[in-house]
Amino acid sequence: MDDKRYPFLLAPLDLGFTQLRNRVLMGSMHTGLEEKRDGFHKLAAFYSLRAKSGVGLIVTGGFSPNFRGRLHPFSAEFSTHRHVRKHRNITTAVHQHGGKIALQLLHAGRYAMSPFAVSASAIRSPIAKFTPSKMSQRQINNTINDFAHSAELAREAGYDGIELMGSEGYLINQFICQRSNQRGDDWGGSYDNRIRFAVEIVRAVRARVGRNFIIIFRLSMLDLVEEGSTYDEVVQLAIELEAAGVTILNTGIGWHEARIPTIATQVPRAAFAWVTEKIKQQVSIPIVTCNRINTPQVAENILAQGQADMVSMARPFLADPEFVLKVEQNRADDINTCIGCNQACLDHVFVGKRASCLVNPQACYETELVLTTVTTVRKVAVIGGGPAGMACAVAAAERGFKVDLFEKNDHIGGQFNLAMQIPGKEEFKETIRYFTRQLDQTGVKVWLGVEANVDQLRDYDEVVIATGVQPRIPPIVGIEHSKVIDYQTLISQQITLGKKVAIIGAGGIGVDVATMLTEPDESDLDSWLREWNIDKSLHHRGGLLPSDDYISPRQVWLMQRGQGKVGKGPGRTTGWIHRRTLEKRGVKLWAEVQYQAIDDEGLHIFVNGQTHTLDVDNIVICTGQTSVDNLSQQLTALGVSVHVIGGAEDAGEVDAKRVIRQGVELAAKL
To answer: Domain NADH:flavin oxidoreductase/NADH oxidase N-terminal: where (predicted)?
Structure first.
């Protein structure tokens, strides 16, 4: 084993009373298991696997210190000895592998989705349903005591520490910022008064748990909202938190109500490490940086450049629980990289479903989706090297099957080869890289440039049809016109279009094409920060520059037949980013459009009771897909055991989350 490639990442961190085995913090993630009846058994398996891999310090999902602090009426709370008994399952499992784990204490404040919400002031958040009650002096004191009591119980439950959620716009953050704190007493008004709540919580916790217990404070270093904290105020609070007894300062970027992306795949890697680099110079305790750090090299570079003392990675440990182990063994190519899509993690949690991972459907299903070794080796043929086929082939080979994968093209990846060419979705190439590596590592025989036929397949024990999709061409008069091009041809052949483009179909693919066609020429971090009005100089309050939208020189119309908002794409937590991006760039978003004809004059449409002719240079067809399956019926007729998965089974909206899970689940059942 040679770990010299990542000496900073793998270096231990001495906290005085204890030592962390490396500089990796597994950031807090709510999984949805916290509220399930049998959830703590599954959570123990989830955290145990990451601890076994060698994570330096794990932070759990958020637990409220009292009832009013719950995100939802039935959300997780940690305030009684009954909770202590349940949590010992987690701490015991982690400690068995030499790991360390901290419990995150999170009070939702005005983000609570219940009429019991409380906050510094009775000001409703723009993303909340309820206006909170203004906390009384007594409620403030009781809440401070509740935080301290929960921390004491966490120590009793075996936790090595706690993390106080002081960022992202939750209760502690609500007291800190004038945006949500307009009190006139000792807890509001001046900045010294507004940060008193945070500092008093830390003092109370430290007094209750003693010196030899980790206290992490999640500090909002960039609020990214109007009336947010200034840089000088953040530094002042950091210094006071250190004096009050904080062990580690973790980073928070952006309130949940901020209209700026902070963790989605569109955000450049390590986009906010410059913030912690600046604040790190002001304190002597370890400081953690976070957001869009998904490879060991990115993490190593941050630490080597002195931008932080630790790196926080949350979703990368959904994608690959063995991330640290693979780093230690110098096997970075074997890491299943988080692509920042949010589709199976945050999108699930925000609708009350269990979190998982698009590229690793076993995440949070460690006790259920298990790939057991087979006792009888059978021959399996997988037809199609897209996401569904790759996932199924790898999982089947891991179980011990003899697997052949047939791909008619000269490369694998399927629709991911298109996705990775969309600006902001370059991470998809990491998934192709990972599966390519795993196909080789697990011994799958890959046949490229081979379109499998019935004669080749009749002798296999199991045949999996994963032949994917092809563009659906709508029946519009003149659809064969030279102005028209389908999205697959456009992206795969990288065709240059004119200055005026109409896109028919505003689903995920249409949004991607519109984004690609209006992308600015500059694509570095500084230009991205400017596009989203983020103040890297930290001169403006909240880290926000005055709005200065980039308008694309190419005029684009994105249109759909249906009603509703145009341009959101399929992601629940990322849809607003897509739409806001297109709006900022001047894309015309039209709904309820009837397409009448295409000719030399352009695209003839009927919308809002009027007929229009769009004099466009090109028309891109993004109206969905149809399944490709020319084999299953013939093979079934011959008595071959056939399974159809992915787009070949259901074209619908292109959904990598569904098809990858389907591939792994099929392999587990074979």
So the answer is: 9-333
Q: Which run of H or of E encompasses 87?
A: helix 81-95
Query: Would you say 9 and 298 are in contact if contact means Cβ atoms under 8 Å apart?
Result: no
9 within some domain: no
Which residues, other chains included, contact 192 with Cβ-Cβ below 8 Å and sequence gap of 6+? Answer: none
164 and 312 co-located in one domain? yes
Whole-number Å distance between alpha carbons of 314 and 579: 26
- Beta bridge partner(s), residue 118: 133
Q: Which residues contact 375 (CB under 8 A, 6 or more apart)?
A: none
Residue 654 has pLDDT above 90, yes or no: no
Q: What is the CATH number of the domain that holds 169?
A: 3.20.20.70
Where in the sequence is the domain holding 573, given as residue range(s)? 484-518+554-623
Same domain, 120 and 193: yes
The reply to whether 618 and 562 lie within a common domain is yes
| In-domain check, residue 583 | yes
What tokens does 187 get?
């807890």
Q: How confident is the model at residue 2 (pLDDT cuts 50, 70, 90)?
A: very low
Per-residue DSSP letter, 446: E
CA distance 356 to 343: 9
CA distances from 550 to 119, 547, 554, 587, 637 (A): 37, 10, 12, 11, 58
CA dihedral 109, 112, 114, 120 (to 10 degrees): 20
Q: Are residues 634 and 604 in the same domain?
A: no
Strand partners, 447: 406
- Rounded Cα distance between 277 and 273, Å, is 6
Annotated catalytic residue within 47, 170, 365, 487: 170
For residue 420 the two structure tokens come to 């990775």
The contacts of residue 669 (CB under 8 Å, 6+ apart) are none
CB 347 within 8 A of CB 354: no
Distance CA 407, CA 389 (A): 9
How far apart CA 112 and CA 273 sit, in angstroms, is 30
Q: Phi and psi for 457 in degrees, rounded to 5?
A: -105, -10
Instruction: Answer whether residue 15 shows pLDDT above 50.
Output: yes
Do 156 and 209 form a contact (C-beta atoms < 8 A)?
A: no
| Residue 525 within any structural domain of the chain | no
Q: Helices 196-209 and 137-156: crossing angle, nearest 10°? A: 40
User: What domain count does the chain have?
Assistant: 3
Instruction: Determine the straight-line distance between the first and last CA of the chain, rounded to whole angstroms.
Output: 36
User: HSE on the CB side for 135, CA within 13 Å?
Assistant: 27
What are 221-265's pLDDT values in tens digits? 999 999 999 999 999 999 999 999 999 999 999 999 999 999 999
Residues in the chain: 670
Could you tell me where the DSSP H helices lie in 253-293?
A: 273-280
638 and 501 both lie in a single domain: no
Q: How far apart are CA 338 and CA 359, in angstroms?
A: 7
- Joined tokens for residue 482: 């030279």
Residue pair 338/359 in contact by the 8 Å Cβ criterion: yes
Q: What is the pLDDT of residues 309-351, one digit of tens each?
A: 999 999 999 999 999 999 999 999 999 999 999 999 999 998 8
Residue 76 belongs to a domain: yes
SS (H, E, C) 638-667: CCCCEEECHHHCCCCCCCHHHHHHHHHHHH
Contact 363, 42 (CB under 8 A): no
Active-site residue 170, yes or no?
yes
